[in-house]
Each structure stands twice: as structure tokens, then as C-alpha cells.
């Protein structure tokens, strides 16, 4: 028992010593950079006051002595500059702008149905706006469905223009050729013209002009002069020569103008059995007042007719223009008279199917009165409306020849023909891409000695439409509308009892035939491939209407053609 106690006690001492040794804290290793043990110290808060708070004395407010620092100055004399003016900007050189390449020349060719063939060329010399020269050529041919309904036209022109410091000079040399057949057919007697005759016209023209440049000088003197001469002939030995001289002088005295216009027209027409010398001298002195939206021209028209016929006539020449609303509304009027000189060339241009030995004489327009309004309704909108009354003695008319039904003679209405007319024009341009124009003419003829004014329709309408779809594609359209007209057909030889010509009307030996009106619609398109090449197409008489402007001469039906244009 005692041994066990001793043993237990010994083990207890050893175990206790071991525990005490295990609880000993090993001192930390001393290092220079790290702290391995954190110690927290807690003590009462003791505030610390700043040194200024510790002052017990207040400042002395009676001490007003100031401290004056001593400075040394160095003054420099300098001129006072005023910089109140706006400084001028110094011009800077702008980079060169890339100029668009312009082409002075082009060639154009096309073909289509009805044997249509087109060849056209234009050549311009240089880009100097003060000196321009060029040449133009055009050929157009077409064949219809009727026997010998063939027609071709050629034109060759050379022109020049020089713009000087004081005057502008213009010159032109022109040649035209027109070939066709007398293909007219009477629908009731289609076998009357089995072999149509051929006709050919040649026209040579030379023209020169000089015009003084405008100057704002209130006392300026201006002038113009023009000379024109031509030779004309056909396949049947008809010949005509003409020389026209025009002159104009005007002296401006502030709002007044004193002027004189004069012209001399010398002409001679000759055929197998006819020869006519047809000359006119016109002198037109006038006074013009232009101020404050008012323009009045008062003068006289003195006409001397000499040659085959000799006469002297004096007519009034008065025009007035009043601006009621600037750029929007103007009222105008005119009273005048004149002798209308007729030529073989003018008759052929209107009706190329003339007979031989055409009788030529002048007609007298004793009194013509007209008036109307014109102006604009804003950008892109313009209008004009005019009424007129004319009285014409010996007005020329076309009639079918008794001997050759498909040829036309020229007769004259020996009485006084009264014409009342209304003319209207309208232009609408919505933008640069869309433009429309229209013109309407309505006329009421009261014939003199004749029953009707032949081939004079009472209503004519024309309109054009242009639309630019984009920079490459452009469309255009045109419409022409004409009312019915009358024609005279002889049922017996219309010779006068004494054999003189032209014949006087004999209602027992003639009949009146109606010539139907028509509507002609055409459209066209142009596509620009690049700066040099473009293609075009055009269609005429889309409604395929069989109509005639002159009796027995039916025009072509539907026609379409197209081609290519090259600019260089």
C-alpha cells in the first residue's frame, strides 16, 4: 500500500513538472523588420492644447503704427497704341478646284422603224466665251407606208461669234436640202397617183450681224446692223433670191429714248411662166419712255412697196407696258399695222407640196390691236395671256390645184379677213428635275371674199414635259393637238373670164371639205452611260392616228427610233 502511494506520488510530480515545462513561452526571435507580437495599451484621454490657446493676454488695439515698405521704380517711355480697329484678314490661297471636263463636240446616230435614220454632229472650237466658232450637220430620213412616202432633210451650218469691248459680231453660213415626193392620195380614188413626182429644195444663206454692247450710261448711244441674203430653188426651175438689210439706232436721254429702225427687203421670184419683184422699205421712228415700271413706245411705221407693185402706207406703232406688281403682274398692249411681205421660201416652209408658177403678192395688215397680262407667280412659275384682233387684206391661202389634186396653189382672199384670237402660255418648273410648258392658240376667222380661211384651224395646243429621274436618266414628252380645218376643192377649172390669175372665188365650181383634227403624242428618254456616251430613244404618234395637215397628205403612223451619242 505504502509502495503504491509512493509510486503514485512520484508519477504525479513528474506529470506536473512536464505540464509546467510545456506552458513556458519561448521568447520571440529578434528581427529588424517585423514585429511578431501586438501589444494594446489602454490609458485615460488627456487633451493637448495648441500654443495659441495658451495665451492669456488680448492684443493691443491702440497700436496703429503702419509699416511702409520702400520701393524703387524705373519708368520707361512707350507709345500708346490703339488696337480698337478690326484687323484685316489676310487672304489665304485656296486649293485648286477640280474643274469639270467640258466637251465642245458630239456625234449622234440612230435608226428605227419606217426606215428612220438620223445622223448628227456638232463641232465647237475652243472654250473662250468671247470667241466662238463651230459647225453643225444633220441628216434625217424616213419612209412611210404609202407609195413614195419618202422624205429626207440635210443641214450644214458654220457660224462664228466675237464679243468685243464695244460690240458683238455674229456670222452664219447655212445650207439646207429637203427631198420628198408628191405622194398625196385621194382615198375615194386611190389610183389617181400611181407614180408620184419627186421634189427637191436647196437653200443657201449668208448672214452677218453687229450689235453694240449694253452700257448703264444714262446718255448712251446704241446701234445694231444685220444683213441676210439667200438663194432658193427647187427641182422644177423655181428660183428666188433675197437680200435684207436692217439697221437700228437709239439715243438714251435719261428716261427718254429717241430711236430709228429701218429695213430694206429686196427679193425676186422666178418660175417657168411667172416673175415677181417684191421689195419693201420700212422706216420706223419712235420715242420711248421708260421709268418707274412704265414703258411706252410711240412711233410710226412707214412702208414703201416697190417693184412689181408700188405703194406707200403709214401705220401707227404704239406699245405700252405697265408693271402693277414687280415680277408678278404686268399689263401690256399694242397697236400697229404693217405690210406682210410673202416669199416662195416662206410658203414652202409651211407647205412643201406646192405647184409650179406660184403667184406671189403682199398682204396688208391695216390694224392690229392686242393686249394682255404676263408675269411670274413665284420661282419656277411664269404665265402670259394675250388677246388680239387683226384685219388683213389679201391674206394668202392654200388650195388643191384643179389640174393636179396632190399639188397646192396659193390664192388670196381679196376681201378683209377678220381674226380674233386668244393666246396663252404657261411654264411650271417645280424643281431642276421637273418642268412643264404649255401653249394654247384659239382663233376665229371671218373670211372676206372666200367662204372659209382654208387650212386655218381654230384651236391649237402644244405641251412639253421634262422629268429628270436621276443624274443619268431623263424623260421628256410632248403633245400636239389641232382642231378641224377646212379645204377647198375645185369642181371645174377656176380660171377668171379674162384669164388672169389668181382666180376669184366662184362658189358654183367649188366645194368645202373638212380636214379632221388630230392628237399627236410623243415620248423620249435619254440615259447617260458615262461622261462621253449616252443612249436615247424616241417614239412619235404613239396613238397611231391617221391624220393630215393638208388634204390628201396623210402623215406617218407610230414611229420609234433610238441611238447613241458620243461627246468629245
Short description:
Helix content is 5%, strand content 55%. It is mainly beta. A hairpin with a 6-residue loop joins strand 3 (131-143) and strand 4.
- What do the pLDDT scores average to? 87
Q: What is the approximate shape?
A: elongated
Secondary-structure element sequence?
HEEEEEEEEEEEEEHEEEEEEEEEEEEE
Termini separation (Å)? 143 Å
Give helix % range: under 10%
Rg from C-alpha positions? 50 Å
The number of E-state strands comes to 26
Given the structure, what is the number of helices? 2
Q: What topology emerges from the helices and strands here?
A:
Blueprint: H1 2-22, E1 106-112, E2 117-125, E3 131-143, E4 150-163, E5 167-181, E6 198-212, E7 221-234, E8 239-253, E9 256-270, E10 275-291, E11 294-307, E12 311-325, E13 329-340, H2 344-350, E14 363-376, E15 381-400, E16 408-431, E17 434-446, E18 459-468, E19 473-482, E20 485-490, E21 510-515, E22 518-528, E23 533-540, E24 548-550, E25 553-554, E26 559-567
Antiparallel strand pairs: 1-2, 1-26, 2-3, 3-4, 4-5, 5-6, 6-7, 7-8, 8-9, 9-10, 10-11, 11-12, 12-13, 13-14, 14-15, 15-16, 16-17, 17-18, 18-19, 19-22, 20-21, 22-23, 23-26, 24-25
Write structural notes for this entry:
5% of the residues lie in helices and 55% in strands. The protein has 568 residues and is mostly beta strands. The chain has a 22-stranded antiparallel barrel. The protein has a two-stranded antiparallel ribbon with strand order 20-21. It has a two-stranded antiparallel sheet with strand order 24-25. Strand 18 (459-468) and strand 19 form a beta hairpin. The radius of gyration is 50 Å and the shape is elongated.
Amino acid at each position: 500500500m505504502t509502495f503504491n502511494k509512493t509510486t503514485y506520488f512520484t508519477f504525479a510530480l513528474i506529470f506536473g513538472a512536464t505540464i509546467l515545462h510545456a506552458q513556458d513561452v519561448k521568447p520571440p526571435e529578434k528581427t529588424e523588420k517585423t514585429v511578431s507580437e501586438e501589444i494594446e495599451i489602454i490609458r485615460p484621454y488627456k487633451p493637448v492644447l495648441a500654443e495659441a490657446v495658451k495665451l492669456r493676454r488680448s492684443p493691443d488695439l491702440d497700436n496703429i503704427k503702419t509699416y511702409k515698405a520702400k520701393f524703387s521704380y524705373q519708368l520707361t517711355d512707350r507709345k500708346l497704341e490703339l488696337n480698337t480697329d478690326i484687323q484685316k484678314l489676310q487672304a489665304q490661297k485656296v486649293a485648286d478646284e477640280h474643274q469639270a471636263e467640258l466637251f465642245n463636240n458630239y456625234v449622234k446616230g440612230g435608226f428605227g422603224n419606217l426606215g428612220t435614220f438620223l445622223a448628227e454632229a456638232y463641232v465647237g472650237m475652243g472654250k473662250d466665251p468671247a470667241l466662238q466658232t463651230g459647225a453643225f450637220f444633220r441628216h434625217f430620213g424616213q419612209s412611210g407606208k404609202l407609195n413614195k412616202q419618202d422624205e429626207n432633210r440635210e443641214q450644214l451650218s458654220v457660224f462664228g461669234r466675237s464679243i468685243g469691248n464695244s460690240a458683238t459680231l455674229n456670222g452664219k453660213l447655212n445650207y439646207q436640202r429637203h427631198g420628198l415626193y408628191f405622194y398625196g392620195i385621194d382615198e375615194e380614188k386611190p389610183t389617181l397617183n400611181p407614180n408620184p413626182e419627186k421634189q427637191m429644195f436647196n437653200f443657201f444663206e449668208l448672214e452677218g450681224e453687229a450689235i453694240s454692247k449694253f452700257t448703264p450710261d444714262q446718255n448712251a448711244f446704241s446701234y445694231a446692223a444685220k444683213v441676210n441674203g439667200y438663194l432658193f430653188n427647187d427641182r422644177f426651175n423655181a428660183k428666188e433670191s433675197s437680200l435684207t438689210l436692217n439697221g437700228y439706232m437709239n439715243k438714251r436721254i435719261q428716261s427718254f429714248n429717241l430711236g430709228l429702225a429701218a429695213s430694206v427687203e429686196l427679193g425676186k421670184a422666178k418660175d417657168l411662166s411667172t416673175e415677181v419683184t417684191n421689195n419693201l422699205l420700212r422706216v420706223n421712228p419712235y420715242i420711248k419712255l421708260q421709268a418707274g415700271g412704265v414703258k411706252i413706245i410711240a412711233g410710226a411705221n412707214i412702208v414703201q412697196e416697190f417693184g412689181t407693185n408700188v405703194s406707200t402706207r403709214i401705220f401707227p406703232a404704239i406699245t405700252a407696258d405697265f408693271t402693277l406688281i414687280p415680277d408678278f403682274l404686268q399689263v401690256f398692249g399694242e397697236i400697229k399695222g404693217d405690210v406682210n411681205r410673202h416669199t416662195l421660201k416662206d410658203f414652202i416652209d409651211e407647205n412643201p407640196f406646192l405647184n409650179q408658177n406660184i403667184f406671189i403678192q403682199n398682204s396688208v395688215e391695216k390694224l392690229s390691236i392686242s393686249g394682255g397680262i404676263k408675269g411670274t407667280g413665284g420661282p419656277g412659275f411664269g404665265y402670259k395671256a394675250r388677246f388680239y384682233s387683226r384685219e388683213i387684206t389679201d391674206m394668202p391661202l392654200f388650195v388643191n390645184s384643179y389640174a393636179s389634186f396632190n399639188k397646192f396653189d396659193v390664192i388670196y382672199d381679196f376681201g378683209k379677213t377678220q381674226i380674233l384670237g386668244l393666246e396663252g402660255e404657261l411654264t411650271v418648273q417645280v424643281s431642276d428635275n421637273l418642268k412643264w410648258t404649255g401653249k394654247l392658240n384659239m382663233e376665229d376667222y371671218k373670211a372676206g371674199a372666200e367662204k372659209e380661211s382654208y387650212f386655218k384651224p381654230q384651236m391649237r395646243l402644244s405641251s412639253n414635259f421634262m422629268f429628270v429621274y436621276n443624274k443619268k436618266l431623263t424623260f421628256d414628252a410632248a403633245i400636239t393637238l389641232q382642231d378641224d380645218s377646212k379645204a377647198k376643192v375645185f369642181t371645174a377649172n377656176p380660171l377668171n373670164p379674162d384669164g388672169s390669175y389668181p382666180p376669184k372665188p366662184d362658189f358654183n365650181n367649188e366645194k368645202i371639205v373638212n380636214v379632221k383634227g388630230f392628237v399627236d403624242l410623243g415620248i423620249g428618254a435619254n440615259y447617260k452611260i458615262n461622261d462621253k456616251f449616252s443612249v436615247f430613244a424616241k417614239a412619235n404618234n404613239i396613238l397611231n392616228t391617221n391624220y393630215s395637215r393638208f388634204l390628201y397628205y396623210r402623215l406617218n403612223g407610230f414611229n420609234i427610233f433610238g441611238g447613241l451619242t458620243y461627246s468629245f
